[in-house]
Amino acid sequence: MKIKDVKEIEVMAKEGVRNLKPAQIRITVGSAVCGQSKGAKETLEALKAEIAKVNLNADVVAVGCNGLCFAEPVVEVIAPGMPKITYGPVTSDKVPELVKAVKAGNLLKGMALCKTTRDQFLNGTAIEYGRTADLIDASEFPPLKGQVRIVMRNAGLIDPLSIEEYAATGGFAALAKALMEKNPAKVIKEVEASGLRGRGGAGFPTGLKWKTAKESAAPKKYVVVNCSEGDPEVGMHRSLIESDPLSVIEGMLICGFAIGASQGYIYISDKLAAAEDKLNVLISKLSEAGLLGERIMGTDFSFTVTVKRSTGSYVSGEETALLNALEGDITEPRPRPPFPAKKGLLGMPTVVNNVETLMNIPAIVLKGGSWYAGYGVEGSCGTKVLAVTGDCERTMTVEVPLGTKIKDVIAMAGGVKGKKALKGFQIGGPGGGILSAKKINLPLDYQKLWKEKTMLASGLVLMDEDTDMVNMARFFIRFFEEESCGKCVPCREGSHRVGEVLDQIMKGTGTKGDLDYLLSLEEPINDTSACALGKTLLAPVSSTIKNFPEDYAKKIGG
Amino acid sequence: MSEQKEPKFADSEAQDLFSRMIQAVPDAMKNVVQPMLIGMAEQKAGGGPITVDAIKEMVEGLPEPQKSVFKQVVSAKKGLDPETVKAMIQECGGDISELFFKIMGRMKCIPPEGIREIAKQTGIPEAHLFHLATTGRAFSVSLPEHQVTVCAGTGCAVKDKEGSLGAIEKLVNEAGAEKIQMKKVRCLGCCDSGPAVEIDGKRVALSSSPSKLETLVKG
Asked: Could you read off the pLDDT of B143-195 as tens digits, one per residue?
């Protein structure tokens, strides 16, 4: 069936709502890679078997990751008359006990984490569940309290492969709105009004990028999704695209419509095979439904999406290196300017956006730029997804309004593991350096973090009091040694030389002069490297020398 | 992520041959055919690890047309002959990274002689192709007996207080690149239980991985 107008999307959405709150029972299992590494697949199979055994009328659905990694495999149960109950960890051996409780209409106290009584979606639809259960509400549950889910609106809720369930939560409504209004300039205006910045780290205003691409006259334009996460953080983008790939595709379509592109590429890391498979399945489903390909929804707008596998190095996430790779060339950055929005893929105007950025777009277009700008603070609007890892009590993914203090995010993750003291943390990826624990009052704010010489990237890594910061600096420099593409000498050779000096210091043969020498390298390496990888190479060293001088002093003996 | 019981192969040659045979099977039938072939090969091997000879013997016992299809695979030269390269280039429409992924899927590495052949046929300089093949983390130009994949993401580095990842790296370096190669990836997607280690594609607990590697290296 080819979708031709908004009404047909509404029909699809109704069907999806019936899936999300069926007359019988719906049991979901968090089955993204993070869940699978903890046995989600076994749990899913055990659930199916047990349900058949006890003759229970229930749908068992594999969903994505709702961010509660510490509680994987996470299972949610929606049963008539009961609130939605989140359980975790539910390993396969605990399944019989859980099914028994579900069948009896009971709450299984020991494993239950929290309850949800209502899910409200972007399109205004709300699903009411039962109200009473002797359990903490999700909005008060410490890991979730204070979160605002815009990007992760569907994560862990819908079957990532179901376009009906996606439509039920407001999916395609934004695309339909944009296509029916036939006003690309208005879409760009809304994105500009939202204050959305690119979520990759550099924080470039998305609306401005789109506008530049729109205004550059060219016979062809492209939209490229950067999902080549080489950050040594956590698979934040993996979790997002695996849980809700359709939001990314809808974001791409809207971007294509706004800038006048008819072709899009999703450049995805080779380690994300599960997500790649899902994307390919969805692309053919959407093409069948008339939501991709020629004359989408019966309008003049046509758009095709191709998934391309990245060769998997850190630099392939740099936008110009990524374009080279897409063209089949060596994955090395190009000089900028010209910026891709003017001259990108095959010399044509190209918008390169990352996964998180694009997932915001349907929400912005549907609810308006000023609604989005209502979250966050001036200059940093909306929400940010962060993977919290390292020495934290609860490894998890959170989405909070910008402006939230770092210490509040740390609190969501249950603080430092084993009640130890926090020594430092990293929030800007390897090139963002390591900040001292004294800085936990900083808000998630682009400008304020830039002032501290760091950025807002995809993860927050906590380091406890036992962490040796010289060792961490060495780890990051080794990372740069291994990931430098070799194009610029200061980065390729500089990383090795810096590593050698650090090795001397770690062996106890370093001197105070070595530290001055290392600090003096920061400016020249920054000035003479083509991309951010080289430019920020020395950040882990200079930040640790400045923020943790005692660790270096111990090694060079005063 | 444990799948069905993994078959035991006597050596990488047997494993390679078997995976090339499976590649000859149409996608839709792989799920059915693979376990069947494994079962038959295991029988021929008499319960021990599957050898090249056991696979050949099994193929002889198959009915037609499967027998001749698989016989072709068995008698095909290991490596990339010019015709195969030509066909693969055509299939990929000249997209070199796609071609490399295809070769990796088939041979688990991109052998240097294959790269030279691609250079000859496409006119792309050898240096360029070697550059592509050696800088992409997804590619490898040699096939070691064993492969260990470790997560070297920041979260895992912070968690690895005992320096186990360093110990693994040391073991691997001592054993030599032909015996074992170590691949660093930046996130295997299981941060909560990290640092993650995979030996020959299977998740291994970090604590037991050095001893397991030692047996592999010495054995």
From this structure: 888 889 888 888 888 888 888 888 888 888 888 878 888 888 877 777 777 78
CB B55 within 8 A of CB B10: no
Do residue A34 and residue B192 have CB atoms under 8 angstroms apart?
Answer: yes
- CA dihedral (A16, A22, A27, A30) in degrees, to 10, reads 10
User: Which residues on A lie below 8 Å from B100 (Cβ)?
Assistant: 311
Q: Where are the alpha helices (DSSP H) in B96-197?
A: 96-107, 112-122, 126-135, 154-159, 164-175
Residues 6+ positions from A490 with CB-CB distance below 8 Å: A524, A525, A528, A529, A534
Round to whole Å and give the CA distance between B86 and A289.
Answer: 37
- Residue A239: band (very low, low, confident or very high) from pLDDT cuts 50, 70, 90: confident
Pick the residue of B102, B141, B154, B156 with the most A CBs within 10 A to test the interface with A by mutation: B154
0.90 surpassed by complex ipTM: no
Domains of chain A with CATH codes: 13-142 (3.40.30.10), 172-373 (3.40.50.11540), 376-464 (3.10.20.600), 469-556 (1.20.1440.230)
Q: Is A506 left (phi over 0), alpha (psi -120 to 50) or beta?
A: alpha
Give per-residue pLDDT as tens, A473-518. 999 999 999 889 889 999 999 999 999 999 999 999 999 999 999 9
The per-type count for chain A, helices as H runs and strands as E runs, is 22, 18
**For A426, nearest residue in chain B (alpha carbons):** B154
Position A231 scores a pLDDT of: 64
pLDDT digits (tens, 9 = 90+) for A15-25: 999 999 999 99
CB A544 within 8 A of CB A551: yes
Give residue A195's Cα distance to chain centre: 18
**How many CA atoms are closer than 13 Å to the CA of B61, on its beta-carbon side?**
11
Residue with tokens 């809304």: A190
Q: Which residues in chain B are contacts of A312 at CB distance < 8 A?
A: 136-138, 185
CA atoms within 13 A on the CB side of B132: 25
- Residue A102 is predicted with a pLDDT of 96
Q: In chain B, what are the domains?
A: 12-71 (no CATH), 82-135 (no CATH), 146-218 (3.40.30.10)
Name the H helices within A216-312: 236-243, 245-259, 273-288
Do β-strands A459-464 and A383-390 pair in parallel, antiparallel, or remain unpaired? parallel
Tokens of B23: 């590649």
Q: What gap in Å lies between CA A322 and CA A319, rounded to an integer?
A: 5
